[in-house]
Write a structure and sequence with these properties.
The complex is a heterodimer of chains A (about 300) and B (about 325). Chain A has about 300 residues and is an all-alpha fold. In chain A, helix 4 runs antiparallel to helix 9 and helix 6 packs across helix 7. Helix content of chain A is about 75%, strand content about 0%. In chain B, helix 2 packs across helix 5, helix 5 runs antiparallel to helix 6 and helix 5 runs parallel beside helix 9. Chain B is built from 14 helices and no strands.
Chain lengths: ~300, ~325
């Protein structure tokens, strides 16, 4: 187990190195930089800026410089905002993004699992069709389409919640982004839970439990749900990663002041250092959450042993 | 000997009938699946609109109907309003007087071409890589699978965005109004599933007796792969491709929404939403109709893909 975890952690390193190489190369190919202004700057000033940001060095040295700083936790200066570092921008936005992501995650688990159980218990009857219908539509609806519908209904027509969430301290601004972000994971979790429950229903130990005369409720709660949730756990990792990486559309749409919104602005403003740092952060969280789930899986299900 | 041949003959024809029957059975199951058939009809309708859309559009997508806008006090025309009917823009216009219905039809062309071309890119990358890895095994397999692992670990949308930013100012990035870059970028991030499927199929199939027989007859590796092994992987690949379509449409719409991809005055459904957001409070139709279009396309292709999967592999029904 320990060796498996070590190997998995070590595997994150080459993945991050390759991701950083690809990102660095692509950002280097991208035109423009910190000297891009409406008015063209004189060459002497451009040369000074280039020296300041280290652009006068060969590419591989720039990469090594960037990696060295990155490992030390210095993500570089923002190309867009003078006197602001990428670290500042991440420190400003990250708590909000994590807050939004966790709220959406809790909502997705709290709604998705009961929905899936509900569908499986009423298999091939009305509850199943309703729950499956909701989850299929949820899977096929992009988050920003859901966001549009939510804003039109609850902000414009009913005026219950604000349409923009740029003031993140007010809880009413949290509601719509959280629902919009949770829509897809709710559907995905419900779908997995349903099929896992159906799988479990056919097992011998469920028949044994029934034949022992255990009440239906107890069979469902103690035997079926507990076993059915094990495979559901595997998708929670990718879902957590999705909630962090997928949130930038929702943050941008509602104006949530998180790193997702900052990322979209960085794309428009060619703030390459910010783009690189965010990409690395996203890649790391995908790898990390997947690792977390795989390890957690082995603790919950004693039958699983990693070599 | 004579009796033996007699007993062989019917069984041989039985095998032949059964092998063609796999597809017929699958099609029969698909036809019974109502959701999948609805999805198939809508998907075919959208593909047709993608081809003939610009021809049946009442207006060219870039034409600005100044008169209608001036008459409406420089505001977007509301859909189904009297003025909208009178001026021939039944779904309304944007703030520049461009006909929303015609722009949606043009967007259908973009979405459907993304849907199809991305899958072509996916097949041209995924099948050879999967086939090489599965057939040669060992080191080749290891190397190729590590590549797929890394592609898998890279958040898709971010890689697409990075590729789009890096190449958007080049000739390649500007080809087809920026669409070529979108096709390739989305394709480059989506081939992994197909590669893994093909590899898995080949790994299990290459141990079979018919492969050994083909080898003994002196058939070249290439021919064995292309004639005997790949056709066996077609089923899962078709499913993966169909289920990849909504992913590609969504990726394009998302890119367009954040302002990457197809360049104005052309507009995909995603960029229509991007442009319409400013008017969302007063003129909801500018975001609502493109949103409905995207959701319809995604739901239709998802239903069709799910139905195909259930039809081709009934054991998987309800999973995933």
């Amino acid at each position: 187990m320990a060796s498996y975890v070590t190997r998995r952690i070590l595997w994150i390193i080459p993945v991050l190195v390759v991701v950083s190489l690809i990102t660095f190369t692509l950002m280097h190919l991208a035109p423009g930089g910190p000297w891009d202004r409406e008015k063209e700057l004189p060459p002497s000033i451009i040369a000074r800026i280039q020296a300041k940001y280290g652009f006068d060095k060969p590419v591989h040295e720039q990469y090594i410089d960037w990696v060295t700083d990155f490992v030390k936790g210095d993500f570089g200066p923002s190309y867009r905002y003078v006197n602001r570092t990428v670290n500042d921008m991440l420190a400003d936005g990250l708590p909000t993004t994590v807050h939004l992501g966790l709220m959406a995650f809790v909502l997705a688990v709290a709604l998705g699992i009961p929905l899936g159980i509900f569908a499986a218990l009423g298999h091939n009857r009305l509850p199943d069709y309703v729950a499956t219908g909701i989850s299929v539509i949820g899977i096929a609806t992009p988050s920003f389409v859901l966001a549009i519908v939510l804003v039109i209904v609850f902000a414009v027509a009913l005026n219950w919640f604000p349409a923009t969430s740029n003031r993140w301290v007010d809880w009413r601004t949290w509601v719509l982004p959280t629902i919009a972000l949770a829509g897809y994971p709710i559907a995905q979790i419900a779908r997995y839970t349903r099929s896992a429950m159906l799988e479990v229903t056919r097992k011998d130990y469920i028949r044994t439990a029934h034949s022992k005369g255990i009440r239906e409720r107890a069979v469902v709660v103690r035997h079926m749900i507990r076993n059915a949730l094990i495979p559901v756990l595997t998708i929670l990792g990718p879902i957590l990663a999705f909630l962090v990486t997928g949130s930038f559309i929702i943050e941008n749409f509602f104006g949530v002041p998180g790193i997702g919104d900052a990322y979209v602005s960085a794309i428009g403003g060619r703030d390459y250092t910010m783009i690189m740092a965010t990409t690395m952060l996203y890649a790391f969280s995908v790898a990390f959450f997947n690792l977390l789930v795989d390890v957690g899986y082995a603790y919950i299900d004693p039958r699983i042993r990693y070599g | 000997m004579a009796t033996r041949q007699e007993s062989l003959a019917p069984s041989a024809s039985l095998i032949a009938r059964r092998s063609s029957g796999v597809w017929r059975d699958a099609f029969g199951r698909l036809r019974k699946n109502k959701l999948a058939m609805v999805g198939a009809v809508i998907a075919l309708g959208l593909l047709t609109l993608g081809i003939v859309g610009p021809m049946i559009a009442p207006w060219p997508y870039q034409v600005q109907d100044q008169n209608a806008i001036i008459e409406n006090g420089y505001h977007p025309l509301k859909p189904f309003a009297q003025l909208a009917w009178d001026t021939g823009h039944f779904l309304g216009t944007d703030e520049l007087g461009r006909d929303l219905f015609s722009r949606l039809l043009d967007g259908a062309q973009i979405s459907m071409s993304v849907a199809l071309v991305v899958q072509v890119v996916v097949l041209t990358i995924g099948i050879p890589i999967g086939a090489l890895a599965g057939w040669f095994g060992g080191r080749t397999d290891n190397l190729l699978m590590r590549i797929t692992d890394i592609t898998y670990a890279f958040p898709d949308l971010l890689l697409i965005i990075l590729l789009s930013i890096a190449f958007r100012e080049t000739v390649f990035g500007k080809a087809l109004n920026g669409l070529l870059l979108v096709f390739v970028a989305i394709g480059l991030t989506s081939w992994v599933t197909v590669a893994r499927l093909v590899r898995g199929q080949l790994l299990s199939l290459k141990q079979m007796e018919f492969v050994e027989a083909a080898r003994a007859l002196g058939v070249r590796d290439r021919t064995i792969i292309s004639r005997h092994l790949l056709p066996n992987a077609i089923g899962p690949v078709i499913v993966a491709i169909t289920l990849g379509v909504p992913g590609a449409i969504l990726a394009e719409a998302t890119l367009a929404y954040i302002g990457i991809g197809v360049q104005p005055p052309r507009a995909s459904w995603g960029s229509l939403i991007n442009e319409g957001i400013r008017w969302m409070r007063s003129d909801t139709h500018l975001v609502l109709f493109p949103a409905i279009a995207i959701a319809t396309a995604l739901i239709a292709f998802t239903f069709l893909g799910d139905g195909l999967r259930d039809a081709l592999d009934p054991k998987l029904k309800g999973k995933q």
